[in-house]
Every structure is written in structure tokens, then in C-alpha cells.
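Hey, can you fold this one?
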Amino acid sequence: LYFSAHWCPPCRRFTPILKEFYEVANRGGKKLEVVFVSSDETGDAAQTYLREAHGDWLMVPFDAPLRWDMKKRYGVWAGAEREVMGTDGKRTGVPTLVLVDAETGEELDFMAKEKVQEAVDKGGDVRVDACLHSFAAQAALCRRMRAEEAARSP
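Sure. Predicted structure:
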């Protein structure tokens, strides 16, 4: 999940990095999906940002209650959204990249942005592949731990 906004300078700096990571990671077939959760001021601004800078990503519809639900669930919203969201439960602002399990929505890595940034900065394809493999390993480990926990529960 990529929490971002066009008006946010740090977001505009990180978005091309994430786009490069996404394109390298998905060469030869889809292995990674990015879902944009906008903190833009309007739906039109969010759509323009998606079209101009993001590439072939998914987006939570701007007017959907799910957009606010995801912000609350993962504790990520822009300072400009404080009036709507308050401060309870906030972990950080935008840009934030949260790695989640595609099957369960469970949070796997709240610091995925830093890992993506490092992979792109330090060596392109090889580092991106290594980062992608570490994300997959995290997901597999979490699934295995959930299965073991479920097996122990009556």
C-alpha cells in the first residue's frame, strides 16, 4: 500500500523510485502490486497523480470509505487530514509504503519504503530482486506462523 499525495514534495521524490522498483520487479511477469491510497485534496488530483507519475498501479477509489478505513487501519495519513482523522493511532504521514499480505491484508513491513529506496539506490535489478525475495520470505514466514498458531488453537 502506497500512501502518498501529489502536493507532497517527499512523495514526488519517492514515487519515481517506487515506479522503477515496480517495473524492475515485474519484468517477466507480475510479482508485486502497488495500491495507491491517496492523501490528495480531490479525486481529480489523485487521478492526475496516478496517471502522470505512478504507472500501472491500482488505486483505492478516492471517494470510497475504504480509503479512510485503510488509513486508520495502518495509521498513515497526511497532516492535512488531521481534521478528519485526528491524531489517535497515527504512526506516520506520507509518503509511506506498507507491505501487506495480499491474501489477508496483514501488515508485514511498515518500513518497506526504506528498503525499496535502498534497493534502487544501491544497484538496480540485483538489489530489487533481493528485496523482492525478502518481501516474499516475510509473507511466507507470517503465513507459516499463522498456520502453526491455528493448529495449536482448539
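The beta strands are 2-4, 35-38, 58-59, 96-97, 99-100, 107-109. Let me know if you want another pass with a different chain boundary.
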